[in-house]
Structure formats: C-alpha cells, structure tokens
Automatic annotation (TrEMBL):
This is NAD-dependent succinate-semialdehyde dehydrogenase. One of its GO terms (molecular function) is succinate-semialdehyde dehydrogenase (NAD+) activity. Belongs to the aldehyde dehydrogenase family. Keywords: Oxidoreductase.
Length: 489
C-alpha cells in the first residue's frame, strides 16, 4: 500500500548536508521496509565515510555563525520547528507507524511528545545563564560563562524515530551547537521529514545535517565522526554494547558523551498496592510500543499475598489486546521492528519455559498476521536464571516472579548491571520513600506507569549510561563552562 501524505514532499529520500538534499550515489541505497509486511516503502542513501566527513565540514563551517546567533533567534527558529511538527502531526504519525510499526494513535502521540521537547528547549535556549562569582581579592570580576560544546554527532534508535531525534537535536541547537545525525537504519524516513521541517522553520544551512546508512555501513559513518576531532560530542540512544564501543572510541579525541542505553526495569507490586492501578500501570509501561521501550518493565515482581489475583487481572487485559498492523484503527500492538527482534523475544520465552516458567497467555509468534508479530505474553514463575530476567527482551512479554519480603525484592531488583527505570506500587508512605531511595536507577515511578516528560531528566546509571535528556539538565549536556577572570584595569 503506498504511503499517502498530505505533504508528499515530507517523504525525503536523500541526505541533507549544508542545506542541500544530496541523493544516494549510484548503487549506494538502503531499502526502508514496512515491518508489518516486509514490503519496501522507499530507498535512502547508504552513506559512507565521505558523506560523514562532508556533514562535519558543513557543521563546522556553520558553527561560528550559529553559536553567535542571539539565543532569542535560535529560540524563535526552534519554536517555528515545533509549530511545523505539530501542524504535520498526521503525516509524521503515518510515517512513524509505517516504518516502525506502532499503531497510528501511538504514532500521532509520539509526534506530540517529540514536539514537547522542541518547545521546551526553544524556551530553555534563552535561559543558558552563567554565573557572577564573588571575587576572593579586591578589584577582580569573575564569571562562569556557558558555551556550546561545538559539533555534535547524534546517533538514534528506531523505537521512537521522532522523539529520540527531537530530544537530542533540540537541546543541541538551543545551546548553539551544530549537528550531524545518523538515524537508525530501520526508521530513517521520520528523521528526514523532521529535518525537512527544521529547514523550513529557518535552521540555517549546515547547522543540522543528516546522513542515512545501512547497519553494515553504519560503523564507517560513525567511525569517521569518532576519529574527527572537530566532533566534540556524541549523543547516543541504543544498546549498551554499542554505547560502550562509542565510549572507548571517543577516548582519543576526548569527546563529551551522553549515552542512553539498555535497561532491565523492575516493576514491583507490594501487598499493599492498589492492584487495579498496578495492572493499569503495567499495561502502559510494558505494552506501549509493543514493549520496545528502553524504560519498559522487563521483570515483574509480585508479592505472594496478591500474586494470583494480580496475575488474573493482568492476563484478562493482556489477552484482550488487539494485535495487528498500524493501518488497522483497532490495533494496540503492532509488528516488532524486524526479524532479529522477534527471534530474540521467541528465544527468551522458550528459554524461560525450558527453565520452568508457565505461559499464562500468548507465548508464540502470530504467523497468520505476518513474520514480525509476537503475541502479548504473560509468564509466571520466572526467575533470575532466565534470559528474560538478565537481558532486555524488548518485546510484549511480562515475566512474573513471586516475592515475600521487601528486602528480598529490593536485592533482586538491583541485581542487574542496568539502572535505567524502576517502578513500584504501594500505598504505604514510609515504604514508598524507603524503596525509592533503595532502587539503583536513574528513574523511579511510584504508582505511575508513564514517566517520561520533557521537563523531567531522563537517563540511567550503571550499564544504562550517563547524561540526561529533557529538563534543565538536558541543555547542560550540550554546554561547557568557561571561567573568565578580569583583574584591575
Ligand atoms: P543498536 O544499539 O544496535 O542501534 C542503535 C543505533 O546505533 C542505530 O542508529 C545503529 O545504526 C547504531 N549502531 C549500530 N551499530 C553501531 C556501531 N558499531 N557503531 C556505531 N553505531 C552503531 O540497537 P538496536 O539494534 O536498534 O537494538 C538492539 C537492542 O538495543 C534492543 O534490543 C534494546 O535492548 C536496545 N535498544 C535500546 C534503546 C533505548 O531506547 N535505550 C533503543 C533501541 C534499542
């Protein structure tokens, strides 16, 4: 089925470098497919090192002018970008759903979510205040000034193709940085459309550049940026192994890094929880985007006293989820992003069952719908030996584990190298603060399943990375501090 947009020119299939759309060189293209059908939607450039360097040349040339542009001017351009993104919410939502697979309502929701970051950082652009420091000796004036770090390379994942771009590019531009971006190979079209709208909003040539590449050629593009001392910062969302690789490879040029990596979020239901609310929270946190969210609960711990009732309520909700393509208005769970993703989910479920877990609902692929569909699944009797407890499943699988004491469940929740998000449900105020303090994660949800917001700091600890996106901290990551000291004249 062709993709029909009210603005067909938003479906871009070229790199954008120095303010120009630059098509793929002959024989160097990457097919973008619909995960619901496997059908090809479009072809974009399969770029290499030369394209990557050209993007840095453009970003470096544009940096001097962009950093000196008044903050208010940068803010106005970002505000116009926000307005254009919202004005084209339907088209962008369709693009997201088609290339990424999430239901259209979620695609539209992601556009609004992405815009909320652009709007927030448009406002923050004018608030990158420095400090006047009281001098320790007479006659001196001492200042801490905030300056943009320089050219930023943004490498983004496929699970939120609009929001991840907005969360990185908006603060970079607000701070006065220029950007080179490589979107995920599965979902380049949304990123290209966002860049087209940024250009339309008045982002000057060279300030924002994007190159697309296949998974095979991505290392060539990113290595060119890692080796280039003009690139002063890498901002990355994706898997922990790639994040660690970027950290190691950034050492020679000492780039600043923001790494939003994998998670293994615990979701704890205490015996004093409101069970209906806990089920609702888990449905939101676990099954949004088909479970392909880095803050997704990966392990669900339920107190023995309420376990069976909770499982019963949860299974009723999960079994009723409508699975289907984004094009069906009723779909609540779409296809997984690709065959690698479905294989991992299937492997985790089979491993759990082989080690003693019980399938309460789901548990299999749904071949009648297509190759990339997996049934929303609830497992019981999961334990720490199972792959689904140690690795991020990144799919619609909720493994339940019974526990009997607070100390025991905190130890289990923290027994992972990851530390992105954690959730728990309880009505005991003393326990609430005890548990929130004890959880080793960057984000904690208490009686709440939907946590991300543009005004809140999003990021992890341990193997989930460092740096924060959103909030005042999200701008700081793109600034450095210059100390200026003036002596007596
Ligand atoms: P990934 O880390 O492989 O890909 C993310 C980005 O990194 C993409 O743009 C990709 O092209 C790029 N990349 C891949 N290999 C690279 C390399 N050697 N050098 C530089 N860049 C490289 O993640 P994925 O394949 O999309 O998903 C795998 C797993 O990562 C998921 O199962 C999940 O656990 C995790 N993940 C986490 C998030 C998150 O939001 N934190 C998002 C997507 C995936």
């Amino acid at each position: 089925m062709p993709l029909t947009l009210s603005r067909p020119d938003l479906q871009r299939t070229a790199n954008f470098i120095a303010g120009e759309w630059q098509p793929a060189a002959p024989g160097r293209s990457l097919d973008v497919t619909d995960p619901a059908t496997g059908g090809v939607i479009a072809a974009v450039p399969d770029s290499g090192a030369a394209d990557a360097r050209a993007a840095v040349d453009a970003a470096q040339a544009a940096f001097a002018g962009w950093r000196r542009a008044p903050a208010k001017q940068r803010a106005q351009i970002l505000k116009r970008w926000n307005d254009l993104v919202l004005a084209h919410q339907e088209d962008l939502g369709r693009l997201i759903s088609r290339e990424q697979g999430k239901p259209l309502a979620e695609g539209r929701g992601e556009v609004a979510y992405a815009a909320s970051y652009i709007e927030w950082f448009a406002e923050q652009a004018t608030r990158a205040n420095g400090e006047v420091i009281p001098a320790p000796v007479p006659g001196r004036r001492m200042f801490a000034l905030r300056e943009p770090v320089g050219v930023v390379a943004a490498i983004t994942p496929w699970n939120f193709p609009a929001a991840m771009i907005a969360r990185k590019i908006a603060p970079a531009l607000a701070a006065g940085c220029t950007v080179v971006c490589k979107p995920a190979e599965d979902t380049p079209l949304t990123s290209l459309a966002l860049v087209a709208l940024a250009h339309e909003a008045g982002v000057p040539p060279g300030v924002l550049n994007i190159v697309t590449a296949s998974r095979a050629r991505t290392p060539e593009v990113v290595d060119a940026w890692l080796d280039d001392a003009r690139v002063r910062k890498i901002t990355f969302t994706g898997s922990t192994p790639v994040g660690k690789h970027l950290a190691r490879r950034s050492a020679d040029t000492l780039k600043k890094l923001s790494l939003e990596l994998g998670g293994n979020a615990p979701f704890i239901v205490f015996e004093d929880a409101d069970l209906e609310a806990a089920v609702e929270g888990l449905m939101q946190a676990k099954f949004r985007n088909g479970g392909q969210t880095c803050v997704c609960p990966n392990r669900v711990f339920v107190h023995a006293a309420v376990h069976d009732r909770f499982a019963e309520l949860l299974v009723a909700r999960v079994a009723a989820l409508q699975v289907g393509p984004a094009s069906d208005a009723g779909s609540q769970i779409g296809p997984m992003i690709n065959d690698r993703a479905v294989e991992k989910i299937e492997r985790h479920v089979q491993d759990a069952v082989a080690r003693g877990a019980r399938v309460l609902t789901g548990g299999t692929r749904l071949p009648a719908l297509g190759a990339n569909y997996f049934a929303p699944t609830v497992l019981a009797d999961a334990d720490a030996s199972m792959a689904c407890a140690c690795e991020e499943t990144f799919g619609p699988v909720a493994p339940l584990t019974r526990f009997s004491s607070e100390d025991e469940v905190i130890a289990q929740a923290n027994d992972t190298p990851f530390g992105l998000a954690a959730y728990f449900y309880s009505s005991d105020l003393r326990r609430i603060w005890r548990v929130a303090d004890a959880l080793e994660t960057g984000i904690v949800g208490i009686n709440e399943g939907a946590l991300a917001a543009e005004a809140a700091p999003f990021g992890g600890v341990k193997d989930s990375g460092y740096g924060r996106e959103g909030s005042v901290h999200g701008l700081d990551d793109y600034l450095h501090t210059k100390y200026v000291c003036q002596g007596l004249l």
